[in-house]
Amino acid sequence: MERQETLYIVIPCYNEEAVLPVTEKRLTEKLQKMIDQGIISKESRVVFVDDGSKDNTWSMITEMYKSNPYVMGIKSSRNRGHQNTLLEGMMTVKDDCDMMVSMDADLQDDIEVLDQFVEKYYAGCDIVYGVRSARKTDTWFKRTTAQSFYKIMESMGVNIVYNHADYRLMSKRALKELENFKEVNLFLRGIIPMIGFRTDTVEYERNQRFAGESKYPLKKMISFALDGITSLSIKPIRFITSLGICLFIISIILLVYYGIGYFRGQTIQGWVTLVISIWGIGGLELLGIGIIGEYIGKIYLETKERPRFIVEEYLKK
């Protein structure tokens, strides 16, 4: 290969002391192999980004930085969440690399396809998405909810890559354009496709987590999904409007129906129906207020223009 450009692998870490030794070893071996084959330059690095971990994650990153020439570290000032930490790493290294790959610390994303990412980059792609070819390692519940999530996002008009998480390659040019997106409420899977440029995909099979516990329990998954929908689509508000119009039409029809019954002298035994209607309409009103409040809350946060991350320390080579 004629060109040898610099690849940085950015890895958000939160309480990952159980997986870091294996992750460092495997990624270092993969990076060295790609350098020896002339695919990437010897300035390529693995960058661990600590998201305010409560265990020994940062001290381990510091030791790896001292002993491993390929390891660098970024320490966030406090816990900011996965998306903000990932963005922190991407924006911190964007001027030092030609291309960047983001992935999780547990190496469930197959590192053996990194060569394919880089090949597509050299072929002219600015963004390459890692797409799962199957979800065999997932439970039935996780597989079903994940697939439903992507379908719901698509139905909401969000441009999202099906079965893609945060395993992707981005060029320096794409990273610089991402910097222009100033959202505080981050959903990178929906924001990055807005950048445009030439894109492609690489299929891979996701591995089992080899140590530690998942940092995305059901509660966080639901919160993540809601953030994605409300950050990138206004269809839920339009749904409330449509629902209000339908209920208004139904109320007019019922008014006419019961009005005719009243003038005919019919006795209406409607207490149960009345109570159910009150509770039903009340529930819909609260739901509508809640959805609108979600959007207002996000507007409130966006107007403050608070920093999305603060780098406390950058261990750079």
Describe the structure concisely for a colleague.
With 317 residues, the protein is an alpha/beta fold.
β-sheet strand percentage: 15-25%
Q: How are the strands ordered across the major sheet? A: 7-5-6-4-1-2-3-8
* SS field, number of helical segments: 10
* Share of helix, binned: 40-55%
- Under the CATH scheme, the architecture of the largest domain is Alpha-Beta Complex
Mean pLDDT: 81
Number of strands: 8
Low-confidence parts: none
> Mind telling me the CATH class of the largest domain?
Alpha Beta
Instruction: Using the CA coordinates, give the radius of gyration.
Output: 25 Å
| Distance N to C terminus | 26 Å
CATH superfamily of the largest domain: Spore Coat Polysaccharide Biosynthesis Protein SpsA, Chain A
Order of helices and strands: EHEHEHEHEHEHHEHHHE
What is the third-level CATH name, the topology of the largest domain?
A: Spore Coat Polysaccharide Biosynthesis Protein SpsA, Chain A
Find the structural class using helix and strand composition: alpha/beta
Shape from CA axes?
A: elongated
Count of discrete domains: 2
